[in-house]
Specification:
- The structure holds 2 protein chains of 2 kinds.
- Chain A is 29% helix and 29% strand.
- Chain A folds into 2 domains: 3-170, HUPs (Rossmann fold, 3-Layer(aba) Sandwich), CATH 3.40.50.620; 198-317, Rossmann fold, CATH 3.40.50.
- In chain A, 57% of the residues are buried.
- Chain A is of the alpha/beta class.
- In chain A, helix 3 (68-81) crosses helix 4 and helix 5 runs parallel beside helix 9.
- Chain B is built from 7 helices and 15 strands.
- Chain B has helices at residues 35-51, 66-75, 93-107, 127-135, 188-196, 204-207, 239-252; strands spanning 2-6, 9-11, 18-20, 23-25, 31-33, 54-60, 79-83, 112-116, 139-149, 152-159, 162-169, 172-176, 201-202, 216-222, 232-233.
- The longest helix of chain B is centred in the N-terminal third of the chain and has 17 residues, at 35-51.
- The termini of chain B are far apart.
- Classes of the chains: A alpha/beta, B alpha/beta.
- Chains A and B meet through helix 3, helix 4, strand 7, strand 9 and strand 10 of A and helix 3, helix 4, strand 9, strand 10 and strand 11 of B.
Chain lengths: 319, 256
């Protein structure tokens, strides 16, 4: 089977989960990467290194900025020419729109934010969290192509092979794009929350000294090469930007290690971090619900425990 | 100016969900307006105040979903429409989008259509983009702030990489984020008005369309695997000793 894999990027910076999608596609057979944008030939080469057997490259000024309409029309035209059975996307804000619109154009369905995927006779059975992660469903798509977006970090990332070659086929872009992007203000740089292997979060528990609390949390995250998260209470209080919020109305993360400091563990917070591999909680209240989700817990003051943890990791990891 | 706000009814986010014989069960927890859609209603009401607009709430759902529409009316929406039809047992997001698009066209003259970011039940977040595609109107998703300027709308959107300022011609489709501001509480007057309001029910025949073909199917609904949720509390004499013990435990898990 030849699976198409859409490589999502922002100004040429790939969403790492694109490579995870490519890795999964390779377990099903051959993979064709789709790279759309302007001056993105470098990305096509990286896709080959990550295992793509060929690349369909639409490199065109019409695709300089992501527009769901233009990108959908470009992909729909390709898929009408030689329809694949399956197209995989990493789940991002862009691919949600792209896959959604593509399903309208091609009269098919999308399985969204999938955490498990089995293949039988060319048809997929996807597992995805529903009801804010309180339940799981197995879901299928009865039309073609089957469109599937994959949750970041749910599938292993393949190791790239430097200099790996393959065919890069130039294809034409379709115009479109109903909205004009007039400005952009970059968010805080650093490790992207959804792709982070380690997330250290804090909540209202830092309220005695929010600036110091988040500084301590950032130091711990830095030692672990991780990203900083927060509860909504911390965001609403203005301690940290909304971009860092984890939970139902924020981001969904599934790191290998999630450390929650001064977060009570409300159900809406849990829906954003439940799928983390290992959860560690620091809270001064032994009855806090976060301990029910955690594997390890410490009952105590985050202002002393978090820096102690940073020092202990530094020592152990030789930093 | 006319704004249509699409709202869905969902189980309350505090509800404990279990899968029973393949069906979701939320016990006696209440059904509520999808929390994200409250932000969409709030956004629409802010525009109503800013540019003198009328606000119509629109929902596909069973009879009981009237309550979600009543909530929107009580917050300040002017009218509400329920699309309900026995043929709509299971809809996928594209099917829902085709029906919403038909209803928006029947309402007529909409300048803006507002959506929540996603639902808290099925939660695909696909519907807004699909409605925009069916209608052929511009999509502005993940919007936190907006200003109508003549025949255009200017918005601030939040994406993974930062904030974008975008502009599109009306009519346009928007999905609204929580940064529009906390949804207002229904006023006493609003609740009385909503109680008295008649909410018309439109069937597929009223919309002049057949039930959309379904492409996405649920094969199984499962309870998440019970994790051995015993939490080991690390104790020691000093923060340093606790930290050392905890680091040992974490490294022994070999997740890093
Ligand atoms: C529709 C809806 C959507 C929501 N979406 C989200 C969401 O996306 N994300 C989210 O997080 N929440 C969300 N919430 C809010 C959620 O219900 C909680 O209110 C919120 O998560 C609480 O944040 P918190 O744990 O930081 O604060 P609190 O619940 O106040 O907990 C603070 C904790 O810190 C502990 N603490 C205090 N001082 C210290 C100290 N010095 N050291 C250690 N521990 C200390 C306390 O014991 C307490 O457990 C949502 C709510 C609703 C209704
Ligand atoms: C396999 C399968 C299982 C399903 N399971 C359920 C289920 O358990 N519970 C259930 O209620 N439905 C279920 N449905 C129906 C499905 O949820 C609808 O198609 C839904 O209307 C759109 O999908 P969504 O919830 O992912 O919307 P999203 O795309 O996440 O919603 C985004 C926004 O679209 C608007 N919107 C979405 N749905 C409606 C609506 N019905 N009326 C008005 N506006 C709306 C809201 O503004 C919402 O914030 C299922 C469908 C399938 C195919």
């Amino acid at each position: 089977m030849n699976t198409w894999v859409y490589i999502d990027h922002f100004n040429g910076q790939p969403a790492p989960a694109s490579w995870e999608a490519l890795g999964l596609a390779k377990t099903f057979g051959a993979a064709t990467a789709l790279v759309f944008g302007q001056n993105v030939e470098a990305l096509a080469k990286i896709a080959l290194e990550y295992g793509a057997d060929s690349v369909l490259l639409a490199d065109d000024p019409a695709l300089a900025v992501f527009s769901p309409e233009a990108f959908t029309s470009t992909l729909a035209a390709l898929a009408s020419d030689s329809p694949p059975a399956l197209i995989l996307f990493p789940t991002t804000s862009r691919t949600r729109e792209l896959a959604a619109m593509l399903a309208v154009d091609l009269v098919t369905g999308v399985l969204v934010d999938v955490t498990g995927l089995e293949l039988a006779d060319g048809r997929v059975i996807a597992t995805r969290p529903v009801y804010e992660g309180k339940l799981l469903e197995k879901t299928t798509c009865s039309a073609s192509p089957q469109l599937v977006t994959l949750r970041a970090r749910a599938f292993p990332k393949p190791t790239p092979e430097a200099g790996r070659a393959g065919e890069i086929k130039k294809v034409s872009a379709q115009a479109g794009g109903a909205a004009v992007i007039e400005g952009f203000v970059a968010g805080e740089q650093g490790v992207s929350l959804t792709d982070a292997g380690v997330v250290v979060s804090a909540g209202r528990g830092v309220s005695n000294d929010p600036a110091e609390g988040f500084k301590l949390v950032a130091e711990l995250a830095a030692v672990l090469g991780g990203a900083v998260g927060a509860s909504r209470a911390a965001v609403d209080a203005g301690y940290i930007p909304y971009a860092n919020q984890i939970g139902q109305t924020g981001k969904v993360v599934s790191p290998d290690l999630y450390i929650a400091a001064g977060i009570s563990g409300a159900i809406q917070h849990m829906s954003g971090m439940r799928s983390s591999k290992l959860i560690v909680a620091i809270n001064k209240d032994a009855e806090a619900p976060i301990f029910q989700a955690a594997r390890y817990g410490v009952v105590g003051d985050l202002f002393t425990l978090v820096p102690a943890l940073t020092e202990a990791f530094k020592k152990k990891l030789g930093k | 100016m006319k704004i249509v706000v699409c709202v869905k009814q969902t189980p309350d986010s505090e509800a404990k969900l279990t899968a029973q014989n393949g069906q979701p069960s939320w016990g006696d927890a209440p059904l509520v307006i999808n929390p994200f859609d409250e932000y969409a209603v709030e956004g629409a009401l802010q525009q109503k105040e800013a540019v003198d607009a009328s606000v119509t709430a629109l929902c596909i759902g069973p009879e009981a979903a009237r309550d979600a529409l009543k909530h929107a009316l009580a917050m300040g929406a002017d009218e509400a429409i329920l699309v309900s039809d026995p043929a709509l047992e299971e809809l996928d997001s594209a099917g829902a989008a085709r029906i919403l698009a038909a209803a928006i066209q029947k309402i007529g003259d909409a300048d803006l259509v507002f959506f929540g970011r996603q639902t808290i039940d099925n939660g695909t977040g696909l519907v807004p983009a699909q409605v925009a595609r069916v209608l052929g109107w511009p999509l502005l998703s993940l919007v936190g702030a907006m200003t109508v300027e003549g025949a255009e709308i200017k918005v601030e959107r939040t994406i993974e990489e930062g904030k974008q300022i975008a502009r599109a011609k009306l009519p346009a489709v928007l999905s609204i984020m929580q940064s529009v501001g906390e949804p207002r509480y229904p006023s006493f007057m609003g609740i009385r008005k909503a109680g008295k309001a008649t909410i018309p029910v439109w069937t597929l025949a009223d919309l002049g369309i057949a039930a959309p073909a379904q492409a996405v199917w649920r094969a199984e609904l499962l309870n998440p695997p019970a994790h051995d949720s015993h939490c080991e509390i690390i104790k020691a004499d000093s923060p340093e000793a606790i930290a050392e013990a905890l680091v040992e435990k974490i490294l022994a898990e070999k997740v890093l």
